[in-house]
Amino acid sequence: MKNPVLKSLLFLIIIPFLASCLQKPAAYPLHQQLSTNWQLELTDTLIDAKVPGCVHTDLIQAEIIDDPFYRGNEDSLQWVSRLNPVYQCTFRVHPDILKQEQQSLKFHGIDTYAKAFLNGHELTKNLNDSCLNNMFRIWEFDVKQLLDPGENTLSIHFFDAEKSDSIKAASHFVQYPDQRAFSRKAPYQYNWDWGPKFVTSGIWKPVELIGWSEIQIVGKNFITKKITGHSAETEMILEIESTKNQDATIKLEIINPSNKEILQKTIQEPLDSGFNSIKIPLNIADPELWWCNGQGKAKLYTIKAAIHSHSNSDMLEFRTGIRTLELQQIPDDEGKNFRFVLNGRPVFIKGANYIPQDNFTNRTSEDQYKKLILQAKNTNMNMLRVWGGGIYENEIFYNLCDENGLLVWQDFMFACNLYPGDSAFLENVRYEARDNIRRIRHHPSLALWCGNNEIKEGWYNWGWQKSLGYSVEDSTRVWEDYQDIFHKVLPEEISKWGAGTGYHPSSPANGWGREISLHEGDLHYWGVWWGAQPFEMYIEKTGRFMSEYGFQAYPDMQTIQDFSLPEDRYRNSPGMQTHQKHPRGEELIETYMQRDFQIPKDFDDFIYASQMLQAYGIGMAIEAHRKEMARCGGTLYWQLNDCWPVISWSSLDYYGRQKALHHQVRRLFKNTIIPMEWINDTLRVYAVSDTARDFDAQIRITLFDQNNENHQLADKKMRVQKGSNLICEIPKSEIGDFEENASIVYAALQNAGQSIAENHFFLQKPKKLKLQNPKPKFGIINNETGNFLTVESPETIYGLHIYCDSLYLDLSDNYFDMYPGEKKTLKINNENTITEDMILFNSINQINLQK
Q1: Which residue is catalytic, options 454, 520, 628, 822?
Q2: 3-state secondary structure string, 735-788?
Q3: Mean pLDDT, all residues of the chain
Q4: 97 exposed, middle or buried (CB, 10 Å; 0-12, 13-18, 19+)?
Q5: For residues 142 and 105, what is the distance between their CA atoms, to the nearest angstrom?
Q6: Are 575 and 553 in contact (CB under 8 A)?
Q7: Which residues contact 607 (CB under 8 A, 6 or more apart)?
């Protein structure tokens, strides 16, 4: 910076700002965030930069590149990944940091190949690869001898990740399925069958200066060891760094979910110079347990810890829960179960696979995290699987899962590839695992660590060894590398740092084409979609835990309008092809639609029909899994969300707009559902309940025929038991004369006059239905409790989709079926004013009448 006046002005601005960044008084470790005054240098171009951030978003902000997600821009922006950007900032160190015994520079996330320089001194020269080479690690450097009391300059020089990958691949003893194996970088950046290719770079997490003397807390955990009667045996773990052998005083304070202090404890503890792990047993009387969504409340305790040495202190505060959790894999008559047991209670898992919410992770705001986790909770989910091709999520994600009762299945970031096993790579993985285990282990939502996504599956079932030309010796060595990572390094780190959290080496345990996959372990069932098998195979192929299965659909029309022009809006247009990443995606959607639905000619109708098709197929799977809950431990569909606007398996598109599937999932993930099936001219009705206790209820079943006349099939009291039970069988001979392709069955379960569950059921496939042209009536109600849309239909309707032409209409329910005379009241969640003349609709009735 050459302008002295500007330098002076910056000094006046920076010093007060730095003071505000210091989080604790001088006797405590001091943290100075380096989040401002960053610039990005690209050859001869210098632009302002944001940290945390990445090169793509900085170029967007500087208007050097257009929106990467718009139309076909992905292809024209691949040059960005080949840049070697330099990030640089100048800063003044707060005087109190310079007074401390220890002064360090801490990078919480650098993506990915980079050299770091402080005041011209290279910090990274002694590292493996002589650079930062893992975006998932925390990198910390002693800078006590390098900091200047005046102006300091920090610069990060990034290198082309793909070029670095190719150099390593060229010298490796075998070829891997994808050369991204050599980078510890988010795999999905290299593209996926639902995601674009944007191999970005940048400082994607905070950078801070830390100054401390004598003592600092560097880690924490809270473990529930046992819950008996009216007490819980727990253990607090504090990890402390000390500059010398010394005595310290530790004070703990525990505040219960009602914000009342229930326990104080003070201990004296001798510390060794260096790293110390202190375990403090705590007995909590009358514990308020943490439960997952649908099983109870997610009660959280506040833990405050302070440590004092002779003249320095440190403190922390966090929230956690009291709960026991285990993954059971117990041998039984057919193999082994795969079931999560929470606080001694087996819990049927209902949820989805989660991917990063954006290709550029720094763009995901706190509000977006809150919205997505709340959407998952409100859809009656109790688990999300953090998939191994993305990132270890930010702290807010796990905090929100804690608060909302969502268990987390956490993959390590290895997916669909083979990986090296040399000592440098294994050391890198070990530190990556250690950093992330220690960071999130205290969260009560953390249910499981999983080594990788589909690598064991790929090794045995995808033909890698043959297609890559491996010799016997090659295969032996590559598999030994696999064993070293997933059966040695990762479980060793969990055992050392994870305090009892379960470990599963690879998901799935066995490939879907093998018989054993149905009898033990978790299963990714892709016979539907990849195998082009009919949806009915979901009923036959229910494993012990269904951790992946799915089907594609188009996103909401408003989303398509956001990334396209009118001339793009037809199937297989160049613009749409950019946003369809599966090589057979369009072909498979059409194949399945021909089987079960009429294929619309109009593009808007095809979008709608694709969503109904997705909801139909995945709904069939979820019902099958829940009916088999005696042997199936849970169901996680692929996938919850998108990282960009795309045709994909998600139930929520990139903007959080709900597809038909998301509404279907909410209905089918309720604690109690009443599935029906029509087999051999007999109607079978089930009651499936996840509730902790049995309860009394009244079941009413009515058939509405082709003339909109109703026939009562059942009206009886019953005891609903936990689990899945066949509660009613009604043969066709007892129903009377009706047309199967023009009738709907409605079942309702009530308790004390309150609706517990309901179901609309058609006796034929959608394409065979002969339904009347619908004429629903709509009304708007605005009152002090909110805005509502009323719907009344004189006819049977399959898949009523209510929408507006000019905006996305966010309703509490949509894409639903109606029997003749039914009335519904729906909550309108839009902030915009909605009027009756804005309401439009479509349905399968109209699609079928088009033929």
Answers
A1: 454
A2: CCCCCHHHCEEEEEEEECCEEEEEEEEECCCHHHCCCCCCCCEEEEEEECCEEE
A3: 95
A4: buried
A5: 7
A6: no
A7: 554, 556, 557, 560
Question: Cα–Cα distances in Å, from 315 out to 211, 238, 239, 390, 756?
Answer: 15, 11, 12, 32, 48
Q: Cis peptide before 189, with omega less than 30 degrees from 0? A: no
Identify the pLDDT of residue 500. Answer: 81
Q: Quick check: 694 pLDDT over 90? A: yes
- Is residue 391 classed as helix, strand or coil in its secondary structure? coil
List of E strands, 638-720? 672-673, 676-679, 682-689, 695-704, 710-720
For 300-328, what is the HEC assignment? CEEEEEEEECCCCEEEEEEEECECCEEEE
Rounded CA gap, 480 and 461, in Å? 18
Average pLDDT over residues 686-696: 94
Provide the residue type at 307 as one letter. I
Tokens of 467: 């297609």
Distance CA 490, CA 496 (A): 10
Q: Please tell me the total number of residues recorded for the chain in this structure.
A: 851
CB atoms within 10 A of CB 823: 10
Token pair, residue 432, equals 């990556």
CB distance 573 to 606 below 8 Å: no
For β-strands 86-92 and 151-158, DSSP reports them as: antiparallel
Query: Does the pLDDT value for residue 125 go beyond 70?
Result: yes
CA atoms of 265 and 238, how far apart (whole Å): 14
Burial 188-225 (b: 16+ CB within 10 A, else e): bbbbbebbbbbbbbbbbbebbbbbbbbbbbbbbbbbbe
Would you list the DSSP string of 108-170?
A: S-EESSEEEEETTEESSTTSGGGSB-BTTS-EEEE-TTT--SSEEEEEEEE--HHHHHHHHHH
Return the H-helix or E-strand segment holding 339: strand 339-342
The predicted-structure confidence for 180-226, as pLDDT tens digits, reads as follows 999 999 999 999 999 999 999 999 999 999 999 999 999 999 999 99
Active site residue 623: no
Give 536's contacts (C-beta < 8 A, 6+ positions apart).
620
Q: Measure the CA–CA gap between 718 and 727, rounded to whole angstroms.
A: 8
Asked if 524 and 547 touch (Cβ cutoff 8 Å), the reply is yes
CA dihedral sign of residues 556, 561, 567, 568: negative
d(CA 177, CA 165): 13
3-state SS, residue 423:
helix
Chain-centre distance for alpha carbon 752? 37
CA distance 659 to 841: 15
CA 629 to chain centre: 23
Q: What does the buried/exposed string (b/e) look like for 245-257 if buried means 16 or more CB atoms within 10 Å of the residue's CB?
A: ebebebebbbbbb
Q: Which two three-digit tokens encode residue 30?
A: 């001091």
What is the rounded CA–CA span in Å between residue 429 and residue 421? 10
CA dist., res. 646 & res. 271, Å (int): 55
d(CA 544, CA 328): 11
Token pair of 53 as six digits? 């951030």
In the numeric block, the tokens 């012990």 are attached to 544
